[in-house]
Amino acid sequence: MTDTSVCPTGRAAEIVFIDEVRQRLDGRILRYSCREELLRRAKALGIGRFDANLLIASAQHQATAGTTSPMLRQQRGLSKVVMASVALAVQSILLVGLWLILR
Asked: What is the Cα–Cα distance from 79 to 85, expressed in whole angstroms?
C-alpha cells in the first residue's frame, strides 16, 4: 500500500486509490476482504463509499478491456454460424420463389 503519512486529496487521492485497487486485482477479481480494506482506505483518503465503488468498478473494467472468456468467444462464433445459416436459408427460399415465378 501507499504510505499513509502523506494523504493526497482530490484527484490525486483518486489516482492513488485506483493504483491500490489495481495492485489488489487478480485478473478482474477483487476479493471481498480486499474490497472492504480498500473501502476503508478510500474513507481515509477522503473518498466517499459511492465514489470508491465506482473507482473499483472502473479499475476492474479496465483490467478486462479487450479480454473475453473462452465461453463468450465460442458463443460469438456460434452466433456467426447461425446468422450465416439463416442468411443462406433465406437466400435459398428467395431463389426458389423467384424460379417458381419465372418458369
From this structure: 10
SS3 state of residue 92:
helix
pTM for the full model?
0.56
Task: Report helix, strand and coil shares of the chain as percent, to nearest 5.
Answer: 75, 0, 20
20-29, 68-77, 79-88, 89-98: lowest mean pLDDT where?
68-77
What integer pLDDT is reported at residue 71 of this predicted model?
Answer: 55
The C-alpha atoms of residue 52 and residue 6 are separated, in whole angstroms, by 19
Which grid cell sits at 103?
418458369
Q: Which residues pair with 26 in a beta bridge?
A: 29
Residue 29 bridge partners (DSSP) = 26
Spans of all domains in the chain: 1-67, 68-103
**pLDDT tens, residue by residue, 30-50:** 899 999 999 999 999 999 999
